[in-house]
Each structure stands twice: as structure tokens, then as C-alpha cells.
Amino acid sequence: MTEIKKKDKKGKKKGGKKGQKEKEGDPATAAAPKLKPIKNPIIVGEGNKLTVKCEATGNPVPTYRWFKDGNELKKSRKVKIKSNLKFSRVQISSVKLEDSGNYTCVVENPLGKDNSTGTVNVQG
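Above: the chain's sequence. Below: its structure in C-alpha cell form.
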């Protein structure tokens, strides 16, 4: 009976190693994030809706962060930020002249980071 138990344990260990080997194979497809350039310049009339979008690739899936003139943007009533696996976008429903500036999308995963900046010109 002890021999059977030992075989079971060995079988479990081998199964565990196979699982680890499969995980070790994944980093071959791993990649640092890469952004598509944001269209420049973005021109929008005052009072209109502004959408700035950035698309990225990377494995593991990167996280997105947005900055305006170097200051991180946070979600608010005015600023909507939506992100999914492939892209992120900032939306401002009714832009004002002071919304003009440089909007930077930063993507990051454990293998690296990338960023792209779009210049927004709000016209009165």
C-alpha cells in the first residue's frame, strides 16, 4: 500500500511540474507594451465633446494612465476615462478653452512602459 501512495504522490508532483512548464512557456509570447501614436493635433470647438483615444498591445495586458500637461487625469463628472484590454479613451463632454493642452497616454506592464502624447486645441 505504501508503494501505491508513493506513486500517487509522484504523479501529483509530475502534474505540478507540467503546469509550471506550461507557465514558463507563456513568457515567450510576453511583450512590453507598445502604443499606436495619438493623432495630432486634435482640434475641437468649445462646447463640443472631446475624445482622445490610445491603443496598445502587450502581454500581460498593460494598464492605462492619462495625463494632461504632466498632471494625472482622474475620473470626474466632467472627465470620463474608459479602458479595456486593447484601448483607453478620455472623454470630456463639453470642452472649454482651458481643456487645451498635451494629453499623454501611458501604458505599463511588468516588462516595460510606453507613452504617446496628443495636442488638443480647443477653439472658441
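Confidence is low (pLDDT under 50) at residues 10-25.
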